[in-house]
Amino acid sequence: MVLVFAESPRGQFKKSAFEAVTYGKKLADALGVSCVALTLGPLHDAGLLGEYGASRVLNNNNTAFEHFDSQVYAKAIADAATQLGAKVVILSHTSTGKALAGRLAVRLKAGLISGANQLPQIESGSLLVEKSVFSGKALAQYKLNGAVNIISLMGNAVKPEMTGSKLEPETIQLTVTPGKIKIKELKTQEGTVPLPEAEIVVSAGRGMKDPANWGIVEELAATLGATTACSRPVADSHWRPHHEHVGQTGIAIRPNLYIAIGISGAIQHLAGVNNSKVIVVINKDPEAPFFKAADYGVVGDLFEVVPKLNEAIKKYKAAN
Amino acid sequence: MKLLVCISQTPDTTAKISFNADSTEFNSAGVQFIMNPYDEWYALVRACELKESLGGQVTVLHIGPAANETTIRKALAIGADDAVRIDADPKSAAFVAFQIAEYARKENFDIIFLGKETIDYNGSEVGAMLAEFLDMPYVSYASKLDVQGNIATLDREIEGGIESLEVELPCVVSAAKGMAEQRIPNMRGIMTARTKPLQELPAAPFEALEQLNRFTLPPAKAGVKLIDPENMDELVRLLHEEAKVL
Fold first, then answer.
1. Inter-chain residue contact B217 with A293, CB threshold 8 Å
2. What pLDDT was estimated at residue A192?
3. How is domain B2-218 classified at the CATH fold level?
4. pLDDT digit string (tens) for B66-87?
């Protein structure tokens, strides 16, 4: 069977959990086995995962799982995988999933591909999994040879699909050992979708000239329901907060739509965004390297183009 | 403090990516290799800063052929005290983590540092594997690290926020932007690096469970479609009808 670990940070599922279960269900169907979802810690509505195709939803609500500690979580998930005889374990390629995947691979003596971007091909029972490598400049396909194999799924790689119905979660008994990490404080950016999860990202760079000019970017983002981001020089000069920095040293993202405003498109920036499905570039310099990586380009003064685009989207939204 | 920094070597960010004829191997001809930036700028520099303020020793560990010693000497020039090179081709994350664990198990390091990921395979796998081999706590994507006695205080990047935490040493830490500032080695560092000890060790046997089938280049973009800046309705129409993202 396929075991999906569905993350529930602070007792809530995020989109990545529904993506992982959808992916697990599709893989389980292809393999002719069942898809079981595992959740850890107290949470409100574990049974929801049934709607995304899990045939069973398991939970252990020990308070040791309230905060994430990879050592504690990996022991518990490995225990569940062993008890249930899982042949494939699916994780989300999130901060949590990345800290877990390697640990689980060692514990379960499993093969691991992290950051898969699509469903595996199945070739005489073996899984062939593709992932993006060299910061999006190439793809690599691997064959998994473990008796157990682990795949972590890149965000926005599959669309959550509701194919089942809500289930009654079952309790699973698991090994719980106290961890060595104590969480002191959690600072979150309220009210916005975190960048790695955002479907639309509006990003701006030095072409904005001054942090006081960001109003037009924020308005466009608000109209689109998008998350705002920025280039490295902007974050480094403290025009925008560090957590908005996308690119090689910042956050790597793969939204459906990435709108780059006044960003020239240095290779280090592209490395963090070139997996976006559609890229729109707005820049007054027709020679900006970003246009080579773009699907749509507007050569013009961003201070005129961005408000016009905002109005056009408002008009579109009102009509649809 | 006894600190270990694991450094890897990656193609430079600007390198042109190509493969051999049957697409199973990276073509390194003409490619400039560098120390993985996260290992160098954040992990190594923070380890050196801790040693300078608290005393101790920074060892760097690299898995790779003798040709990679330039990268190791650079780490020594930045401030590490000694180095170990495990003579092997770093074929897979599990292979690499296993080699580091085999070495580190005998050495009782207080903190083992790595970068948050390498810029070639982007897996972020080795740190977690290493922590599990050694049964140590693991703090990934750390953007801040301080040590007091037997406790490290760290900030860790999570989706949409920062988690501040404490962990008992020993531990494994993967470093992200913010933990330190890049250091350019000075002339004195470069000179002393030449005589710092560099030990070579053989690799321990380990069988990888992942087999590379083939590399491919992503489909080329169709080319940018330029839209008249006066006609943003057209851009919205294309995003809706053609790209289907609105």
1. no
2. 81
3. Rossmann fold (3.40.50)
4. 999 999 999 999 999 999 999 9
Tell me which amino acid residue A137 is.
Answer: K
Give the per-residue pLDDT at B76: 98
Which residues of chain A make contact with B132, given a CB cutoff of 8 A?
Answer: 71, 74, 102-104, 106-107
The residue-averaged pLDDT of A105-111 equals: 98
Collect all residues of chain B within an 8 Å Cβ-Cβ radius of residue A182. Answer: 165-167
Q: Is B213 in contact with A142 (Cβ distance < 8 A)?
A: yes
Which domains are assigned to chain A? 2-171 (3.40.50.620), 195-319 (3.40.50.1220)
Predicted pLDDT of residue B13: 87
- Mean pLDDT of the region A265-275: 94
pTM of the entire predicted model: 0.94
pLDDT at B220: 82
Predicted pLDDT of residue B242: 96
**Smallest Cβ distance to A144: which of B161, B210, B227?**
B210
Of B9, B54, B39, B26, nearest to B214 by C-alpha is B26
Which chain A residues are closer than 8 Å to B178 by Cβ? 242
